[in-house]
Design goal:
By secondary structure, this protein is mostly helical. 46% of the residues lie in helices and 10% in strands. The protein has 3 domains: 52 residues, no CATH class; 95 residues, DNA polymerase, domain 1 (Orthogonal Bundle), CATH 1.10.150; 173 residues, Intergrase catalytic core (hpI Integrase, Chain A, Orthogonal Bundle). The strands form 3 sheets. The chain has a 3-stranded antiparallel beta sheet with strand order 1-2-3. Strands 4-5-8 form a 3-stranded antiparallel beta sheet, with no helix packed on it. The longest helix has 20 residues. The chain is elongated, with a radius of gyration of 28 Å.
């Protein structure tokens, strides 16, 4: 069956000012009155070409009367009605910041139905060059490639929702060009550097326990801060990771599910680590494995752990790596001992094994070399 063509696709007229005008019906208001999309040109031929292009664009379209709201208005509605209960507080804060600082000042007033791929691309280019509010010592006012990618992914998601709500017929972020992934090299402490770090940490009992456990488990910062004693099975030596702790903007913290579905997992601890936690549990006074030293009824604040790590690294005269980089040290230790890549991915809570392999494959023997060894045995 042929696709339905928009109503009014034959309406063409010459205006009093000499220009040609055409219109098509692209939807209907609540009172059933039509919503028109107009096309203008200097000649009839040019108008018909434009009109036919619009007919194809709006084929099978049935937009609602809200299609003329601005992009800024739609983003506010999308955040308040569709996203507020589906994403974490930190993500919500990040989205609001990107909308306020980058999108609204550039294209927020643009009518959603008239927003084009060129508009979005121009916005990306503008904020890339001069979007940073506070001058960076290296980048100046340029935004990083990763921030442009974050803005794009958030805006793409919002405009996909607009398509589903029949406010636009296609997502204008499709067809834009954004920077490729440009991740900083993974930083991994050497064995001697880890020894230096742990020697410094041993001077502080609270933080020694925390960072020793981190190195033995490779947990994300929010995961280790969110551990409770009920997650530790002292009989089997297993540790269940089922929640993550986040620092709230303005103070305090909030709980959430693990970063991914595979983030909820149970890992077997080395006997020495299980015994270590068991001894710590004997003197524990709260439900948290790592509690706030001032308020034991509260968990340790992720931001406090981050700040303490920077001080410890500086005292040990080591590179100022991230806590997340301890995950790489943990994974590299396993990979260097030829632990199966699937097991490393499971312990880290990675969604895709490909990501784990791409990160740590260089630590495994080259497959070509293994193949040659096998073939060399054949006479």
């Amino acid at each position: 069956m042929a696709k339905r063509r928009p109503n009014g696709d034959g309406l063409v007229r010459k205006r009093d000012d000499g220009r040609w005008e055409g219109r098509i019906v692209v939807g209907h208001k609540k009172d059933v009155s039509p919503i028109y999309r107009y096309v203008f040109a200097n000649t009839q031929k040019e108008l018909l070409e434009k009109l036919h292009a619009h007919i194809e664009t709006y084929r099978d379209a049935e937009l609602t009367e809200d299609c003329k709201i601005s992009l800024g208005e739609w983003l506010d509605r999308w955040m308040n009605e569709y996203m507020i209960f589906t994403i974490r507080d930190n993500t919500l804060s990040s989205y609001n910041s990107m909308i306020k600082n980058y999108i609204k000042p550039n294209i927020g007033d643009r009518a959603l139905v008239f927003l084009t791929t060129a508009d979005v691309q121009k916005m990306y280019n503008t904020v890339k060059k001069q979007g940073r509010i506070r001058k960076h010592p290296l980048l100046g006012h340029q935004l990083s490639d990763s921030m442009i990618r974050s803005i794009h992914m958030m805006l793409h998601q919002a405009l996909d929702a607009a398509v589903k709500q029949r406010l636009i017929v296609k997502n204008p972020t499709n067809g834009t060009t954004i920077p490729k992934n440009n991740y900083a090299p993974k930083q991994v402490l050497t064995d001697s550097q880890l020894d230096r770090f742990m020697n410094v940490v041993r001077q502080d009992k609270l933080w020694y326990d925390f960072f020793y456990t981190e190195l033995m488990t490779g947990l994300r910062l929010g995961e280790i801060c969110g551990l409770k004693w009920l997650d530790f099975n002292e009989n089997s030596g297993r540790l269940k990771i089922s929640r993550t702790l986040h620092k709230k903007k303005g103070g305090g913290y909030t709980f959430g599910e693990t970063k991914t579905d595979t983030g909820t997992r149970t890992i077997i601890l080395p006997p020495s680590t299980a015994e270590f936690l068991l001894n710590r549990k004997k003197s524990s006074i709260g439900e948290w494995i790592f509690h706030n030293p001032i308020k034991p009824e509260d968990p340790i604040n992720p931001h406090a752990a981050y700040c303490k790590m920077k001080v410890l690294l500086k005292n040990a005269e080591l590179p100022l790596i991230r806590i997340h980089d301890f995950r790489h040290s943990h994974a590299s230790l396993l990979a260097n001992n030829n632990i199966n890549i699937q097991e490393i991915a499971r312990r880290l809570g990675h969604t895709k094994i490909e990501m784990t392999w791409n990160t740590y494959s260089h630590l495994y023997p080259r497959e070509e070399e293994k193949a040659i060894q096998v073939l060399n045995k054949i006479e």
